Amino acid sequence: MRHAETSQGIGFIELPTFTSDNNGLVRHGRVSSVHGLSLEVNGLHPPPPIGGCIECSSESHEKILAEVVSFRGGTASAVARKGLEGLQVGARAEDVGPVLLRPCSEWLGRVVDPVGQPLDGLGGLPRGGQPRALRAPPPPAGTRARLGPRIDLGVRALDAFATCRRGQRLGLFAASGVGKSSLMSMLARHADCDVAVIGLVGERGRELREFIEDDLGPAGLRRSVVVCATSDSAPLMRRDAALAAMAVAEHFRDAGKHVLLMMDSVTRFAMALREIGLSAGEPPATRGFPPSVFAELPRLLERAGPGREGCGGSITGIFTVLVEGDDHDEPVADAVRGILDGHVVLDRRIGEGGRYPAVDVLRSLSRTVPGCLEPAERDLLARARRILSLHRDMADMVRLGAYRAGSDPAVDEAMRVAPAIEDVLRQGKDENGTVAGAFAALALAMETA
């Protein structure tokens, strides 16, 4: 017998007994302590690796999966995939290895959780695909294919002002309630891709069916795989929703498919990482985020993009970033913006003015635009940006009567043409478009205004 400190005080438990296989490896240990979101297990030899899973049995004999996140001496510290209610000191713990997914083409049209269990009530998922770990390295930079041709996203504001190439990664930066979900549904239904993979990280539970049935619709769902962990899930499940969505996208990319990966949101992924890191004993740093968060972000985001040269497949990534208090320079937004190949900004004031999608085209940028536009399209885009910028700068003076029409031909042109450009950017959820169509509409509006 030994003393053990529990939440009820000091008690007595039996010394742990461990089970060995024929090679002398200890496969079963015991929970030695439980605190917050984490638990500690000792007695396993050799100890499971970082990222390995431990299965514990609660008082009600319910199985609790936990992932090893750190070691203290010979003791493994793990974070559970769900609540630890009912787990006691001395509970049996078994090393069960990492979580593996087996995605295949029959996953299309399905909604799953981060460990591959169905959430749509349609029965079990086929498991015929090759097993994939949630974590994987990106393709080697030296043998990775280059970006492909430009693709039609189906949204005029993006096709014209943030033209995207196949395999590019764009960030969608917005505060809450500005229309991210509606824009994502438009992309899922209209973008030129073979497969859409949608990762919903920390999604509100009541909004899952609304997004799938109303926003995505049967046509969008038919070519999509949705991976979801709701906001009440444990931080490990919310983190793994992003990793699982990436793993599913990689499966289809390696099969030669052109994949559109949409993840909502990277901010909630970072928040889950913060909870896990603090539970593992990491010191808080920038705004409470431990250093491991900013090391983990590029490991996730770099996995999107083109595959190896000759693979034929690609992952075009759209990653939403929830900017807190409309602060676009907060740490997560700043780190993500530096990793991705462009950013799209949604502005609450534009939405309040009645124009959706509420894309602020002057603050949005695609870093691949110079390589995917024709010279005439580049000239048209530059002129449209100048007109919108001048209109924004002079709008208050015109409203106050401080500017007299005819004083400056450029200002007069901006006041006349900018509303026509805004009409081009206004688009309903069910409208579809192409890059060529977006530039044609933009040219027509600027010529006839």
UniProtKB/TrEMBL annotation:
SUPFAM superfamilies: P-loop containing nucleoside triphosphate hydrolases. InterPro entries: AAA+_ATPase (IPR003593), ATPase_a/bsu_AS (IPR020003), ATPase_alpha/beta_chains (IPR050053), ATPase_F1/V1/A1_a/bsu_nucl-bd (IPR000194), ATPase_T3SS_FliI/YscN (IPR005714), P-loop_NTPase (IPR027417), T3SS_ATPase_C (IPR040627). Keywords: ATP-binding, Cell projection, Cilium, Cytoplasm, Flagellum, Nucleotide-binding, Protein transport, Translocase, Transport. It comes from the Bacteria. PROSITE patterns: ATPASE_ALPHA_BETA. The keyword Zinc-finger does not apply. It is found in: Cytoplasm. PANTHER family: ATP SYNTHASE, SPI-1 TYPE 3 SECRETION SYSTEM ATPASE. Residues 122-144 are annotated as: Disordered. It catalyses: ATP + H2O + cellular proteinSide 1 = ADP + phosphate + cellular proteinSide 2. Residues 166-351 form the AAA+ ATPase domain. This is Flagellar protein export ATPase FliI.
